[in-house]
Design goal:
- The complex is a heteropentamer of chains A (about 270), B (about 400), C (about 750), D (about 55) and E (about 220).
- Chain B has about 400 residues and is mostly helical.
- Chain B has 16 helices and no strands.
- The longest helix of chain B is centred in the middle third of the chain and has 36 residues.
- Chain B starts with 14 loop residues before the first helix and ends with a helix.
- By secondary structure, chain D is mainly α.
- In chain D, about 60% of the residues lie in helices and about 0% in strands.
- Chain D contains one helix and no strands.
- The chains are: A alpha+beta (about 270), B mainly alpha (about 400), C alpha/beta (about 750), D mainly alpha (about 55), E mainly alpha (about 220).
- The interface between A and C is large, with 71 and 81 residues.
């Protein structure tokens, strides 16, 4: 629900991805497919209709051989806080049927498939292409329906889906906490599948508001940046890269501008 | 004696000729209906849209017909509220065109959504902050208004008018038409504006997004204003085409001239406002987001900078200047050329605000997203055209659409 | 009152109108509208996963030799997700995308669901399900017949099992049956282990102690391109908060090269030359480990041996022949860079040089393996933490010596069909790639009369697919034990499907570390889904059917009882903790471990032709094809997103392949934009790729990271089997079909790293 | 759309937006009802009226 | 339909003179209108609700009451929380076989249960009156452990029933009628012994009262 602008966010779950560590192996993607019942088709080579809650994008510095460099950029849903961090992320405000909303207790942008009627306005609004449409009925051939997880409902044709930061894991962790009569979750109790699967531990996840969580410090790393910061989407996914060209690719700059020197209102970010 | 179906005192083509014409258009209609059923049955995979290009031909068609259907509300506004009685010669037709445009827009929306059977969620579970909600509400309400405006005209069919109740109903509705028209203007003003907002609020899309007053009220105002300017142009254009096809003069030239003059002034003010908006966007808004103007255009045949020139100069200033000069208006060719250009300009604007928004890459490491519609999309987009032609043909044949027809064609 | 038509119409309309008003005032339309919407939210054709009790089964991944620990999440009896097992020594909680996709193999459409007998033509794909008894008698009858014809040695078994109980069972089976022809898929370790044997006299497996090293000089090893245990990747990429230094020598900017601190773009096939160039600098600048060389090595200095023949030592050979300027000319690596690498390597605390291209699925050139090994010796890191260890294979598989009959003794006395362990290649254990040519060129009957295949897909993986197929046509009987309908299974006469690794017990031997070799136990995560049977049990069954000594040699009740018996005291540990460690390494025990005549590390550069290493000095490794007709060089590359070997990519992995690698059914070939410009090719162009061995249609992908003049194609595509729903059928090109093997003169290994090629626009 | 649906919040935007909607719907509904009732009355009173005259 | 048909849709035999006076047809029209109105109201309010739900019987007529007398921990004895905080829901067969290995009573339903299910090791396909659809994440832990709610507060006194009531399934949506509630209009309160309706708004209402907020979507959706 749209709360007033003064609403205090209790927790803001976010992610810091160290691009220097990421090898582009794709384990995050596959782990996400398996965790979230993401379907597959016979042909997935058209990446524009392939459902991925997290994509690993390959960027190059465009320099000729052998000065070429590549960098992999894992892109889940950025869980934007929106302008002024009031939950007005690009997608939430446009959804005509409140199928997507901003949860002020976790900072996570939800997507309810059974509410969505497939107008795709949110996809038009999201500059990160984090939102995917179910163009086809999902099909699991042979006995593959047997590996579907009951914690995430499979999506029907005609609705939009996206990364939820594995919110069901938060729900399950809360259940466990209730059972043990605890109110708070430990940092390691709630971790998305991609973060857990990363073999090189390039991804860190936690509450950006909680000084006890690793992300709290990491997001202030001198090489930390966010994608398209200038658009004031206020993503909760941060990146770290020691490479200037990678940081530059993260946003758009005029020829005379550089990420570090930019005096933008978006810079006052934390 | 049976009351005739065709209004008295006018001549209509023979039944067989009309049937043939209807059959031809009907075939196109059926093709569209087939495509529509395919899309509903098999889903949106029948289109060539994709995750990066979620809005495409249909949404453009939607925005375009709504803008062009704006002739109804604006002519209604002029006729019933400003009191330009002269326009009564064309208001009926404007209403019919508006009715066609709005019903088409609703139909296209129903095809365009992934879950048509849940479409009513937009009303029931409305998110009042979404432009699309506002559009859907006002669109449907205004469609209701147009229906109310259309009904008395239908009731004027001789055979229906023979029934006292229907006759009185028609009469009474005419009596309070100004109230409905006012409501229609109110609704139109909002939804036309909201349609502008649909793209304007996308702050993740630097091509569409506007800042500060350029989003509200400017973007809203621009859309409303352009619909008010180009809607009447479309009415004039369709009237002209109808006259050519029927081979009859249907509306007095001074009625057309008055409407054209008003449209011309609307257009010139609109295009000046649009130019200011474009300049501010190109010089201030976009650079603030790290873009130069030319980042938004490429050497693609459709997405090149020429489209901006076409929209603003060729289909904006040029027709506007012709229409505001008396000699331009009085020259039949120039008049039709300029309304045609204005209609094109408006369509280009809606095209750009929908499709180019999708096509422009937001990240420097992305490339342009290109898309060409599938035949199902084309067919369903042509469907409303065929439907419109059929409705116009029926209306023209059986209803007294043009009050001046009898006096303009005395020989009949 | 007379009811006329008009009145009827009016009444009817009024009734309808009243009905409409009434309906709107009743729940009917509203409830139906709501329920129809709810129906769309629960479409019966969209599955609803059943909930239940969650549990976790700890096991081990068997999809590559890495042997990473896995934790499988179950809901009731269904396995729903595979995750990395924390605290397992291999993988260390991480899993590669292949391991994470494991359930797609288990539940996927490519499974063979019962024993099958071919009814159509070979490869036609027409099958008849048969019982296990019938399937076993199909095989045993054929095998009995061969023995009756006194041709037991014409039985060959191609196996993917390299170590462990199953490998032991297969070896034992062929031994008592009377065939020397156990054939195994090759790996880079074939050459690397042999290099260690040449220099250290030790049989075993080489492992590089990457965990403890701080500087890794990699000659093309795809450390981050998959095929390596995940634990090795962990903490590897250097980032702001530390990590190891990695220098990657490779002609193409691979993912490993991209993560390296320095990417050295050497001409392909010249890695060994570069290694010796680096050795040259180390020796010249006296920055090698002088202490180790002086005390523990022989053959470094020139020496006199027998009469007055002067044996050239490694030092003078390298100083004479591998001057940096010359090496630079061959490798394309700048002289400065050679000096720089040598100094950094020499001065690092714990540096190690590694090799083995990509996933290391091609044995490779002995020269190269030796050159890299010598570099490690110069660094003096042999059996040092962060260095190189040669670890004896685990010896827990100890079966009692079987009795053998005459036929078996006769058969075993015959030479191996692939020429391995022969006079020519005494130290090479398997030379699978030689098999097709030997069969194809044999006079009369094929030397292989019956072929059994398990855990391998030779029809896909052996180079020069056309001749492989031709040779298979000459084998009268082929039986496959594959759980999947792979290329070889499709081409066999009878399939006796094995369980998948998630349905049964199996011991998995991982690569070693200082703490020892890890032997893990795969456990049945779910009950077998289909009518499949464990390969171990099937071998026992076949042995039983064959009778005699063979039956006696396999007197176990079942594989499971054998397993328990084999692990004996360790059984409890391995079932509870999931793994045991064997042969832990004690660093620094160099002197005692060298098993050479001199008891030292031998720079054995001219031990006499034809095995003499460096016989092809200054040359890059040979490549097939002439430069005239084939101006480009095609290299295959490995990617972590493509299972290049066995089994084929599961759908999840295919889903993460970039559209610059596979586009619809077209494989994409990487080409440098400069080369493409010369050839007037641009992105997305369809071209015909021709090599001396074959041709294929591919699509152009411009990639700055590939060397000009070189074109690169990934391994793992171009499958023609599995299920269509598997998503890989008929997609891309199998690069093995475009390349032939090139025989290493010393070892007989396939050392082909590329082939000449050309591109023609279509 | 109604105060009893899940999404409803008693805030300014809802009241303004929905106010506009209900206002329009009311005008249309009342207007139509007025026309129909008046037409019924007119019919009962057999009020003449020239064909098509307004 | 051809156009000429349209133009002559009215019977040409009927001349103007045959037209009955308007007055008399008015009553006919009114009468027919009322027939339509009343008829559709009857259909909509009385026949439709019956048509909408198909009736199913539980495979075994379960006697909750008799079990409650024999267990020590109330509902929790069979419908318990697992260690990880998840709720076990309807018990598996294994929970029953401890006692019902053999027929222990004289109830024919029990005999049927033992012979058809226990003896054949077949799970009973119970029909769940309160099963939420797949899109809902319902945390029993949050309500029972967290908020201290009793089972009865949502499920009514099903725990004291001696027979399984008929399961009514919505033939369009497949939902149990208990989710919607037994009143088709949802006016009025559920009966004394009935569970509460469980549509989203029912949850929201309680949440608003108890927590001051209806909650965000992800609180209850997955």
């Amino acid at each position: 629900m749209k709360e007033s602008a003064t609403h205090e966010t209790a927790r803001r779950y976010g992610m810091v991805i160290d691009l220097d560590k990421c090898t582009g192996c794709g384990a995050c993607m596959v782990s996400c497919y398996a965790e979230n019942n993401v379907p597959f088709k016979k042909d997935e080579s058209n990446k524009l209709d392939s459902i991925n809650w997290i994509r690993v994008v390959k960027m190059t510095n465009q320099k000729p051989y052998p000065d070429t460099q590549i960098c992999y950029l894992p892109m889940p849903c950025m869980q934007c806080d929106g302008v002024g961090k009031h939950g007005h992320s690009p997608c939430v405000s446009v959804c005509p049927a409140v199928a997507t909303d901003y949860d002020f207790t976790t900072g996570i942008v939800s997507q309810i498939y059974t509410r969505c009627f497939g107008c795709r306005y949110c996809m038009a609004a999201c500059p990160y292409h984090a939102r995917k449409f179910n163009w086809w009925d999902p099909v699991w051939p042979a006995d593959m329906e047997k590996y579907l997880s009951p914690n995430v409902s499979p999506r029907m044709r005609g609705v939009v889906e996206k990364c939820s930061f594995c919110f069901h894991r938060y729900q399950l962790a809360r259940d466990k906490a209730y059972q043990e009569e605890r109110a708070e979750l430990e940092e390691n109790e709630y971790q998305p599948a991609c973060v857990e699967a990363c073999p090189v531990k390039a991804m860190t996840f936690g509450d950006l508001n909680n000084p006890a969580h690793a992300v709290y410090e990491l997001k202030n790393h001198k090489h930390a940046f966010r994608l398209l910061e200038r658009l004031e989407t206020n993503p909760k996914v941060y990146y770290i890269s020691s490479k200037e060209w990678v940081r530059r690719n993260g946003d758009n700059y005029l020829p005379d501008e550089a990420p570090g020197r930019l005096k933008s209102k978006a810079k006052a970010r934390h | 004696m049976e009351t005739p179906l065709i209004p008295p005192g006018v001549k209509r083509c023979p039944t067989w000729q009309f049937a043939l014409w209807m059959a031809a258009v009907g075939a196109v209609l059926l093709w569209g209906v087939y495509a529509m059923i395919l899309v509903w049955w098999k889903g949106l995979n029948q289109t060539n849209m994709n995750d990066a290009y979620g809005f495409a031909l249909w949404i453009w068609a939607d925005l375009a017909v709504i803008a062009l259907g704006g002739g109804a509300f604006f002519t209604g506004f002029l006729t019933y509220i400003i009191g330009k009685d002269k326009l009564k010669g064309i208001i009926n037709y404007a209403v019919i065109i508006g009715f066609i445009c709005y019903s088409s827009a609703l139909l296209i929306l129903a095809i365009d959504i992934g879950q048509p059977l849940r479409g009513w969620f937009i009303f029931w579970h409305a998110n009042v902050h979404s432009m699309l909600t506002e559009v859907a509400f006002c669109l449907s309400c205004y469609f209701g208004v147009l229906t109310i405006e259309f009904i008395p005209l239908i009731l004027e069919n001789p055979r229906l008018a023979a029934k006292p109740f229907l006759h009185h109903l028609s009469h009474n509705m005419h009596e309070i038409m100004a109230v409905f028209a006012a409501t229609g203007v109110f609704l139109s003003f909002f939804h036309q504006g909201s349609l502008g907002g649909v793209a304007g609020v996308l702050f993740g899309r630097p091509f569409a997004y506007r800042e500060g007053i350029f989003i509200w009220p400017w973007t809203f105002f621009l859309f409303t204003w352009s619909a008010a300017a180009c809607g009447p142009c479309f009415t004039i254009l369709v009237t002209w085409i109808t006259e050519k096809i029927t081979g009859k003069k249907l509306v007095q030239q001074d009625v057309i001239g008055l409407l054209a003059k008003i449209a011309g002034w609307m257009l010139i003010t609109y295009i000046i406002a649009k130019s200011i908006d474009t300049l501010y966007w190109a010089l201030v808004t976009a650079p603030g987001m790290g873009f130069t103007l030319m980042d938004f255009y490429t050497d693609h045949p459709i997405y090149n900078i020429g489209i901006l020139f076409a929209e603003i100069v060729l289909c904006g200033f040029l027709p506007a200047l012709i229409l505001i000069t008396r000699r331009g208006r009085e020259n039949g060719f120039l008049l039709i050329l300029s309304v045609l250009l204005a209609v094109l300009g408006c369509s280009i604007n809606r095209w750009v605000m929908v499709l180019q928004v999708m096509a422009v890459p937001v990240f420097s490491f992305e490339s342009w997203f290109l898309y060409s519609p599938s035949w199902q999309e084309v067919a369903t987009t042509i469907l409303p055209v065929a439907y419109g032609v059929i409705l116009i043909s029926l209306a023209h044949r059986y209803l007294p659409v043009f009050p001046q027809e009898k006096e303009l064609n005395p020989a009949n | 009152m007379k009811i006329d038509r008009r009145k009827f119409l009016a009444g009817f309309s009024a009734c309808v109108g009243g009905g409409a008003v009434g309906s709107m005032l009743s729940p009917l339309p509203w409830k139906v509208m709501d329920d129809v919407a709810i129906w769309t939210q629960n479409w019966p054709w969209t599955p609803v996963p059943q909930d239940g009790r969650y549990s976790y089964v700890q096991s081990v991944c068997a999809l590559c030799p890495g042997g990473c620990g896995i934790s499988v999440r179950k809901v009731k009896s269904r396995a729903v997700k595979i995750e990395g097992l924390k605290d397992h020594p291999a993988g260390n909680g991480g899993l590669c995308p292949l391991g994470l996709s494991g359930l797609q193999y288990l539940y996927g459409p490519a499974r063979v669901k019962s024993p099958l007998k071919r009814v159509g033509k070979r490869g036609e794909g027409k099958w008849q399900p048969i019982s296990w008894d019938a399937a076993i008698s199909e095989v045993s009858q054929k095998l009995n017949e061969l023995r009756a014809r006194n041709k037991p040695h014409s039985l060959a078994w191609i196996s993917g099992e390299n170590k462990g109980i199953l490998a032991g069972l297969i070896d034992r089976f062929l031994k008592v049956y009377g065939s020397p022809n156990v054939l195994r898929d090759s790996t880079a370790h074939d050459a690397i282990d042999q290099a260690a044997y040449h220099t250290q006299g030790q049989r075993g497996t080489v492992f590089w102690d990457i965990e403890n090293a701080d500087f890794i000089l990699s000659f093309g090893a795809g450390l981050m391109d998959g095929g390596w245990p995940l634990a090795r990747m962990n903490g590897f990429p250097k980032s702001a908060d530390g990590g190891k230094t990695l220098i990657q020598v490779e002609a193409r900017l691979s993912d490993t090269a991209a993560k390296a601190d320095l990417w050295v773009a050497a001409n392909p096939g010249t890695e060994g030359v570069l290694a010796l160039g680096i050795a040259h600098v180390m020796i010249r600048e006296l920055i090698y480990n002088i202490d180790f060389i002086n005390r523990q090595a022989s053959g470094f200095e020139d020496g006199v041996m027998g009469g007055d023949q002067v044996l050239q030592g490694f030092k003078s050979m390298v100083l004479e022949k591998y001057k940096p300027e010359k090496v630079s000319g061959i490798t394309g690596v700048p002289v400065d860079a050679i000096f720089d690498i040598a100094r950094r390597f020499a001065k690092s605390d714990k540096a190690v040089a590694v090799c083995g291209r990509g996933h290391g699925r091609v044995a490779g050139c002995m020269d190269e393996a030796l050159a890299v090994h010598y570099l490690n010796a110069l660094k003096g890191n042999i059996h040092q933490p962060g260095g190189v260890f040669v670890v004896a294979d685990p010896d827990y598989v100890r079966f009692p010596e079987p009795g053998m009959d005459k036929i078996a003794e006769y058969g075993l006395g015959q030479t191996r069909v692939d020429g391995a362990q022969s006079e020519k290649f005494p130290n090479s254990r398997y030379l699978l790639h030689r098999l097709p040519e030997i069969i194809n060129t044999a006079d009369g009957d094929s030397p292989v009369q019956a072929l059994l295949v398990s855990g391998a897909n030779p029809l896909y993986t052996i180079p020069d697919g056309k001749s492989v197929k031709k040779s298979f046509d000459k084998i009268p009987f082929i039986a496959s034990f594959s759980p999947f309908m792979d290329e070889t299974a499709v081409y066999s006469d009878v399939i006796l499907p094995d369980h998948t690794y998630l349905e049964c017990y199996r011991d998995i031997v991982s690569q070693g570390s200082m703490d020892g070799i890890v032997v893990s136990l795969a456990k049945p995560v779910v009950r077998p889904l289909y009518n499949t049977s464990h390969l171990g049990d099937v071998i026992i069954q076949i042995a039983k059917a064959l009778g005699g000594y063979i039956e006696t040699a396999f007197a176990w009740k079942s594989y499971e009882s054998l397993l328990e018996e084999t692990f004996a005291d360790n059984w409890e540990t391995i079932t509870s903790s999931g793994y045991i460690r064997m042969n832990p390494q004690i660093p620094g025990t160099v002197a005692t471990s060298f098993n050479t005549p001199s008891k030292k590390f031998e720079f054995n550069i001219n031990a006499g032709a034809p095995e003499a290493p460096f016989s092809s000095a200054f040359e890059k490794i040979a490549m097939e094809g002439d430069a005239q007709n084939y101006p480009l060089t095609l290299i295959p590359y490995d990617s972590i997103r493509l299972a290049g070997n066995y089994p084929a990519n599961p759908p999840f992995m295919t889903k993460i392949i970039d559209d610059t690698v596979l586009k619809k059914t077209h494989g994409c070939i990487e080409i440098n934009p400069a080369t493409a410009k010369q050839l007037r090719l641009s992105e997305g162009d369809a071209v015909k790729l021709s090599t001396p061995r074959g041709e294929a249609d591919v699509q152009i992908h411009l990639y700055e990271g590939v060397m000009p003049g070189v074109i690169a194609l990934p391994r793992g595509l171009g499958h023609t089997a599995y299920s269509e729903e598997w998503g890989l059928y008929g997609k891309g090109v199998n690069v093995n079909d475009l390349m032939g093997p090139i025989e290493d003169p010393v070892s007989g290994f396939n050392m082909a790293w590329g082939i000449r090629a050309k591109l023609t626009k279509i | 759309m109604f105060p009893f649906v899940f999404e409803w919040v008693w805030d300014m935007s809802h009241m303004v937006f929905m106010g506009g909607l209900w206002y329009a719907l009311t005008i249309m509904g009342l207007g139509l009802t007025y026309c129909i009732i008046k037409a019924l009355i007119d019919t009962r009173q057999k009020k003449g009226g020239t064909h098509g005259g307004h | 339909m051809s156009i000429s048909d349209l133009e002559h849709a009215v019977d040409p035999n009927l001349g103007a003179a045959d037209h009955p006076p308007q007055k008399s047809s008015g009553w006919v029209v009114f009468f027919c209108f009322m027939i339509g109105l009343v008829g559709s109201l009857i259909v909509g309010w009385f026949l439709f609700p019956q048509w909408l739900y198909s009736e199913k019987h539980q495979p075994i007529d379960f006697n909750h009451s008799i079990h409650m007398d024999n267990v020590s921990d109330g509902c929790n004895s069979c419908h318990f929380f697992r260690e990880d905080g998840t709720f076990s829901g309807i018990p598996d067969l294994s929970a029953c076989t401890d006692c019902h290995q053999d027929v222990i009573g004289s109830d024919p339903e029990e005999e049927k249960f033992v012979t058809e299910y226990v003896a054949q090791d077949k799970e009973v396909q119970w029909l769940s009156y309160f099963r939420q659809p797949d899109c809902v994440f319902f945390s029993h832990a949050a309500h029972v452990t967290g908020a201290g709610m009793s089972c009865e507060s949502c499920h009514g006194d099903i725990g004291y029933s001696t027979h399984s009531k008929v399961y009514q399934e919505n033939i369009i949506s497949g939902y149990s009628r208990d989710i919607w509630g037994y009143s088709i209009s949802r006016f009025g309160k559920p009966g004394e012994h009935d569970g509460k309706p469980m549509k989203m708004n029912d949850c929201a209402k309680c949440h608003l009262e108890e927590t001051g907020s209806k909650g965000a979507c992800f609180q209850c959706h997955k």
